[in-house]
Specification:
By secondary structure, the protein is mostly beta strands. It contains one helix and eight strands.
Length: 130
């Protein structure tokens, strides 16, 4: 049985690599594949931003990270470490990545190809079969 406040295979920290392809104008986040894209409640996420100019990571719910402003984190080139707030304990945080002065919608992966991080023990998603 999973421990309270701990997702299966969760860790205290999570590493996510961010890249940009200027030819296709596509930003990509490379989190570990589920179920490893999980972190303890109030755990840390380190985004490694490869592009020199940095980028933005928008979250839903907004302000998922401590000291996050306006629903996004402004990342610089290199490692950027953030701590999840207690407000997202036992929740799935969705996020998207875009240019350093752009915006994007942090919607669920199945909707638009966005990304997600499981914090603690979020309820299971129920999908309808047709």
């Amino acid at each position: 049985m999973p421990q309270p406040g701990r997702a299966p295979n969760a860790a205290a920290t999570l590493q996510v690599a961010i890249t940009y392809n200027p030819t296709t104008d596509v930003w990509t986040a490379n989190p570990p594949h589920p179920p490893a894209a999980a972190v303890d409640n109030q755990g840390q996420v380190t985004f490694h931003c490869a592009p020199q100019g940095g980028c933005r990571v928008y979250t839903s719910p907004a302000d998922a990270f401590v000291n996050e402003a306006n629903g996004y984190e402004q990342l610089v080139h290199g490692n950027n470490t953030y701590t999840l707030t207690s407000g997202v304990d036992d929740t799935e945080v969705t996020y998207c990545v875009c240019g350093p002065s752009d915006s994007c919608a942090a919607t669920s992966p199945s909707d638009t190809g966005g990304y997600s991080i499981k914090a603690g023990n979020p309820p299971e998603r129920h999908t309808e079969r047709k």
